[in-house]
Design a protein that fits this description.
This protein is of the alpha/beta class. It folds into two domains: 1-30; 33-172, Double Stranded RNA Binding Domain (2-Layer Sandwich), CATH 3.30.160. 37% of the residues lie in helices and 31% in strands. Strands 1, 2, 3, 4, 5 and 6 form a six-stranded mixed sheet that branches. The longest helix is centred in the first third of the chain and has 24 residues, at 2-25. The chain starts with a helix and ends with a helix.
């Protein structure tokens, strides 16, 4: 009987130590300094093109800045202004911008909520190995209450953030 209790006590102690160890490791994983091929150190990000015909002032500059800010703050890459001196080049184009009804009122059949959708196409080229790492479209969207200009602007910002996040995550994943 005494041997059985000792083994039970050791099992409980082992379980407690395991839980404490796991608790101390919680939060140790992060995406900062995300993993990229080791030969890529500098990336050029020319100003994105705008083929959306949205007519939004500073659209190209804003989305380009969102992407470069993410690269600088969450990866080991540095931004190179001259594409000929960069290890990699990320080019992008804003393909489309839509602002359409997403929810209609039941009694009036008029839009109650609109959805802003932004589509960006990006190409990431490895200049060291002379290969294209990816060519892909990224989508961001957000809903807002019709009739509120500030809510519409917030939705545009949210959609741009989502597209920039998806693009950045694709850049630093799959290595």
């Amino acid at each position: 009987m005494r041997t059985m209790n000792r083994k039970s006590g050791q099992g409980v102690l082992l379980a407690v130590l395991l839980c404490l160890s796991l608790g101390m490791l919680q939060g140790c994983y992060s995406l900062s300094g995300a993993s990229l091929p080791p030969h890529l150190n500098r990336v050029a990000v020319p100003l994105f093109d705008d083929a959306s015909q949205a007519g939004i002032a500073q659209f190209r500059e804003t989305i380009t800045r969102k992407v470069t800010d993410k690269i600088e703050s969450q990866s080991s890459l540095s931004i190179e202004s001259d594409p000929t001196r960069a290890d990699a080049v990320l080019t992008g184009v804003i393909v489309s911008y839509t602002d359409e009804p997403s929810q209609l009122g039941s009694s009036t059949e008029r839009a109650v909520t609109n959805r802003v959708t932004i589509v960006i196409k990006a190409e990431f080229e490895d200049r060291v190995k002379n290969t294209q790492l990816f060519s892909q479209s990224f989508i961001g969207f957000a809903d807002y209450s019709v009739g509120s200009f500030s809510a519409q602007q917030t939705a545009i910002t949210t959609a741009m953030d989502q597209a920039a996040d998806a693009l950045f995550n694709r850049m630093v994943s799959n290595w």
